Amino acid sequence: MAGTPRVTVHPPSPTGGRRVRVDGEILGLAHNLADVAEFLRRAGLEIDPSDVALASWIDWRGVGPERWGHESDG
User: Fold this and answer.
1) For residue 63, what is the DSSP state?
2) Which of 3, 13, 24, 72 is deepest in the core (most CB within 10 A)?
3) 6-38 residue pLDDT tens
């Protein structure tokens, strides 16, 4: 799809949360799917929080959308 933004959710940071980028610009540190949806909304991309985990245009780095804490956390 032409014009689709590149959305990247990076692996969990050592202190918790995941950095979110759109087209290379850092939007913030998300701690859950609702945070990702809010960052995307602020960037002009409307998405329901319940759809964030399933969106094929979001690149989940390291681990999937179910992980938000440090890797050693349960």
Assistant:
1) S
2) 13
3) 999 999 999 999 999 999 999 999 999 999 999
Residue 2's pLDDT band, with cuts at 50, 70 and 90, is low
Element housing 30 (H / E): strand 25-30
Query: In this structure, how many other beta carbons lie within 10 angstroms of the beta carbon of residue 49?
Result: 15
pTM as predicted: 0.87
Torsion of CA 45, 48, 53, 54, to 10 degrees: -90
Distance of alpha carbon 65 from alpha carbon 74, whole angstroms: 14
What the block records as the tokens of 70 is: 């440090």
Longest dimension (CA), the chain: 39
